[in-house]
């Protein structure tokens, strides 16, 4: 994920609004106790997600991939009064920790946390979303995109994480593993999709920002 000079990245962090106490504790506990803590959105990306959410002012957000709940808390900061974030994760082992931090952050009433397979949960969702955040198994990114597209309001946003995949997207295709190939296929799919405006933002491990165009 280290695409930026560490000194520059630290300067950016030093000049970004700090994490609140709950997010700081969640960040620390994830890094101390949870396998693959790099999956956490973290301070800088968390503030980016919060800023996007506050700009969009969504009524409904869908998050695919909860992990320890950091990004969900950040995204929920921009919800309008009465809004809701649905977050889905398949890892039941993290449920107690996630619910504990949702409670500490006082967002439990705003977040519908579902344990299960997103591939089977998403088709049954009735909401129309203003913002979708995809941060789950990379092999299914294109499938998640297809599943949520018609559930996103015109003018709504889809954000996908890890689209630079630690720089492995630059490898020769015959040397790529299946996750890297899946990310490359997803990036190409979005780039060719005239239904969305899109921007690949080289922050942390890469964010693909997509805006669903208003079309008749």
Written description of the protein model:
With 216 residues, the protein is of the alpha/beta class. 38% of the residues lie in helices and 20% in strands. The protein has helices spanning 6-14, 21-33, 42-56, 70-76, 95-104, 118-121, 141-149, 178-192; strands spanning 60-64, 84-89, 111-115, 129-134, 152-161, 196-201, 207-212. Strands 3-2-1-4-5-7-6 form a seven-stranded mixed beta sheet, sandwiched between helices. Helix 3 runs parallel beside helix 4. The relative contact order is 0.13. The mean pLDDT is 95.
Question: What's the helix and strand layout?
Answer:
Elements: H1 6-14, H2 21-33, H3 42-56, E1 60-64, H4 70-76, E2 84-89, H5 95-104, E3 111-115, H6 118-121, E4 129-134, H7 141-149, E5 152-161, H8 178-192, E6 196-201, E7 207-212
Parallel strand pairs: 1-2, 1-4, 2-3, 4-5
Antiparallel strand pairs: 5-7, 6-7
Helix pairs in contact: 3-4
Shape: globular
Largest sheet: 7 strands, mixed
Q: Calculate the mean pLDDT score and round it.
A: 95
> CATH class, anyone?
Alpha Beta
CATH overall fold name: Rossmann fold
Q: What share of the residues lie within helices?
A: 25-40%
In terms of DSSP E residues, the strand content is 15-25%
Reported CATH architecture: 3-Layer(aba) Sandwich
Radius of gyration: 17 Å
State the helix count: 8
């Amino acid at each position: 994920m280290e695409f930026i000079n560490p000194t520059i990245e630290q300067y950016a962090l030093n000049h970004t609004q700090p994490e609140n106490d709950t997010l700081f504790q969640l960040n620390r506990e994830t890094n101390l106790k949870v396998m693959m803590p790099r999956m956490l959105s973290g301070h800088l990306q968390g503030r980016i997600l919060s800023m996007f959410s506050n700009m969009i002012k969504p009524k409904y957000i869908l998050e695919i991939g909860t992990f320890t709940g950091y990004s969900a808390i950040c995204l929920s900061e921009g919800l309008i009064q009465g809004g809701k974030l649905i977050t889905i994760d398949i890892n039941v082992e993290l449920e107690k920790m996630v619910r504990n931090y949702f409670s500490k952050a006082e967002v439990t009433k705003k977040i519908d946390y579902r344990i299960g397979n997103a591939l089977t949960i998403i088709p049954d969702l009735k909401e129309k979303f203003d913002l979708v955040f995809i941060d789950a198994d990379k092999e299914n990114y294109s499938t998640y995109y297809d599943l949520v597209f018609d559930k996103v309001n015109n003018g709504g946003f889809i954000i996908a994480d890890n689209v630079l995949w630690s720089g492995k997207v630059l490898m020769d295709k015959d040397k790529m593993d299946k996750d890297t190939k899946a990310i490359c296929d997803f990036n190409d799919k979005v780039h060719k999709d005239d239904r969305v405006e899109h921007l690949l933002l080289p922050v942390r491990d890469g964010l693909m920002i997509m805006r669903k165009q208003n079309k008749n």
